[in-house]
């Protein structure tokens, strides 16, 4: 089965979030199940540099007002197609905005071109199915539906985060090359403008999201971001599949970034990593728990609540190493706490992949107090590394972490600490619980080992995706 996956980012070529991890991992995860997946990416400078010349395999004299071509290359040994439109993608800055963090004003055109190219290639190159990821690829299923009716293969629309929808004014509709029939509530129209994610959700044969709990949550107004009615209307055509992690990349027994490598049978070696992490963050060495945070500093991630409980964390005997960036007010709040508690709170503003590995290998517990979390990956890394997750009961966090209640502890099934309300009081209580468990070494090692035994590789999730593709391409 030949599948065309279209995304705005994919590791190792370009990454701003979890979408890139999924898009980069899926081809290899699906290969054992008889699925040959080709990934289509925009021709950002970093992508073109990585693939070299590539082989031209298709061109358009006019794709939304620009000459365009597609180059064939490879990504991690899997087929890759690159949409080369220099006027739209060959520019300094990030994939979605400039060096100052301002969105490119022509993002509507950049990602409409990506969607149109994907639809044309899916039909013209004989793919069996098109898989679109997030709003940036949302118009691909719509172009299939409205421009290739009768010839279009089935399509899957994956929502990685419902909060990002790609909504633009009505004035762009005539420039998209879609027929008038597409301007409707069951087409691309959304609140008087064009909704890219909404268009993909309407047109796709099936919708997936990145955890079963999130698939249920987005049917509710507090999580559906205005699209809960559409989700509800699709019924069983909405599925939740938990993301996986790459055990070759995230494995404490082989991690080249960790000062000391270890396994569930040699947890004592983590002490070397903890001491190195304390030194790297300028923290006082000690026997108390070392909490870590690797996160965007945003409201969604509950970081405003986290700021409120930092004094409690330190006062209870904990220390904190934080790696992240985001809202300026939250950065200021964490910085002020670090100034109040020198040697107890250490910050690194920004992102560093190697440092995130060292933090997972040396931290005792990772804090993930998200208000909503479609899947989450940092808690999966924590489980794999024996860095016990402390998470809010939402989305993929609820699906992947088993709370250390009395029954779960007694059965040896507990893998972390789960709390319900994202409030200062609830988070402070979770931290208190965590410190109490940490002070009971036998119980704590049980939590670590149970988490490290859990299988969150792509093997299981890849099989589920392959089954869905089969269901759509060759229905019973």
From TrEMBL:
Location of the Starch synthase catalytic domain: 2-232
Alphabetical UniProt keywords: Glycogen biosynthesis, Glycosyltransferase, Transferase
Residue intervals of the Glycosyl transferase family domain: 282-434
Catalytic activity: [(1->4)-alpha-D-glucosyl](n) + ADP-alpha-D-glucose = [(1->4)-alpha-D-glucosyl](n+1) + ADP + H(+)
One GO MF term attached to the UniProt entry: alpha-1,4-glucan glucosyltransferase (UDP-glucose donor) activity
Any single GO CC term annotated in Swiss-Prot or TrEMBL for this entry: cytosol
Pathway: Glycan biosynthesis; glycogen biosynthesis
HAMAP family, per database record: Glycogen_synth (MF_00484)
Annotated family: Belongs to the glycosyltransferase 1 family. Bacterial/plant glycogen synthase subfamily.
Biological role stated in the UniProt entry: Synthesizes alpha-1,4-glucan chains using ADP-glucose.
Protein known as: Glycogen synthase
